[in-house]
Amino acid sequence: xxxxxxxxxxxxxxxxxxxxxxxFLEALHREFEPQRKRLxxxxxxxxxxxxxxxxxxxxxxxxxxxxxxxxxxxVPDDIQxxxxxxxxxxxxxxxxxxxxxxxxxxxxxxxxATSPTWxxxxxxxxxxxxxxxxxxxxxxxTGEIYQLEDHVATLMVRPRGWHLREPHLRVDGAPMAAAFVxxxxxxxxxxxxxxxxxxxxxxxxxxxxxxxxxQLWEDVLQWTENHVGLPTGTIKVxxxxxxxxxxxxxxEILWALRPHVVGLNxxxxxxxxxxxxxxxxxxxxxxxxxxxxxMTVPFMRAYTExxxxxxxxxxxxxxxxxxxxxxxxxxxxxxxxxxxxxxxxKEREAHDGFDGTWVAHPDLVPVAKEVFDRRVGAGRHQRHxxxxxxxxTADHLLNFRVPGxxxxxxxxxxxxxxxxxxxxxxxxxxxxxxxxNLMEDAATAEIARAQVWQWxxxxxxxxxxxxxxxxxxxxxIQVGLNDWGDRWPQIEEAVDLFRSITxxxxxxxxLTIPAYDVLWQLESRQWAKSHN
Length: 532
Fold this sequence. Notes:
The chain is 48% helix and 13% strand. The protein has helices at 19-51, 63-67, 92-99, 118-132, 178-196, 211-228, 244-247, 250-256, 268-278, 298-313, 332-352, 365-376, 394-398, 409-427, 442-457, 470-484, 491-502, 512-530, and strands spanning 3-5, 84-88, 105-109, 137-139, 145-147, 154-158, 165-171, 174-177, 202-205, 236-241, 261-266, 317-323, 356-359, 433-435, 438-440. The model has no long low-confidence stretch (mean pLDDT 95).
């Protein structure tokens, strides 16, 4: 067999990495890896055009698709009601709590909310098998037993994006695409299990930038259905519109995936991160603290309203963004203020026509549920609201002005603190972290470190008159380390990684790419220490 498992010893991996499963992954890799690599090269070519001053627009070559009268395929019964969805990593406790939360859907996340240690990758797959079989249990350190209730949320899975590799699995010496690993293992082991339980494999597809990248997923879906013996259109997907380039191709993405797609989702932090990434050569892009760039600023309103209009015109679901607040059991005053903001955000989404929304914590499910139950009611969705009043142009999407926005030292300090602490947690094997009463994941860490890099390289002057320099960032790092450095065993590696991706002129496309190398080194070091 050509698939080489280069991981450190993990005996339970044999339950997932069976010979048949590895043969399936190898076939998937050989069929689609060349196409994936070409698409990643096209991303870089487009990036160079953007850095040279080119501005995107709606595609001329796909006008007939946008103007055509077509709809996506059917929606299975168990995902016709998506009023509240909860997301989180694939550890046992989170899976149980999320499925029991009262949300309609739980998205088990191998991407932004999971640190891809080999243990997490393998145990995540094992945990999902147990969840589907309704046998999953978790015993807390205090002896409390967690298990599934009779009625639980519908399960969806988010594999990692096209840009990431899985270094523990290699074909002909080259690492496999992480998307193939996460998607392939889940489908191979669970497609027929899910069907036996009255469901099917459902996925969220992240980080897409074009119709062609969506077409690659469509080819993968059709090939997979043929290979595992599923009727065409059995697998269903929802696409996250979380890049500025994808915002110009919503119709085209739905068209490419139309036998399998059921909706689009508005991903706030990755969307903002992609704006900085794509237009990093231009001064004045998103010059405001990230906390000030809310969903109500004009260009974000244009993006979300276009998403609702596009989805409903094509018979697809429009799913709103994340409520990341983590309720505090010790501070009711913080809860009162934050829950009011969450409710206001969900009221706006429901009013705009979204069919559902995301939350990061089970305690937020009742808040979001009350809003969407009141607005949507027994109809379960709002796809009848076509939002024909929405007229969005390229200028609306590309005018990144933040009215009243300011760049402050408080905002800069928060970016430094969040990015470093998240990296420390991630390098320690935890991909979703509560910081300052918010659930932070890789997406929030990306926008935080991107703003630091942007402000350093553009020599931004803050509201208090201080210029953002590497020296100022070093000062903020030292102040932060005095406050929270002792909390994190991997803090030294996190600070070094943060410096490498923020304080120099070189842009790093995704922080997870260099972070994978550091994670692999830490895993190897810890394994060697435990076996001495």
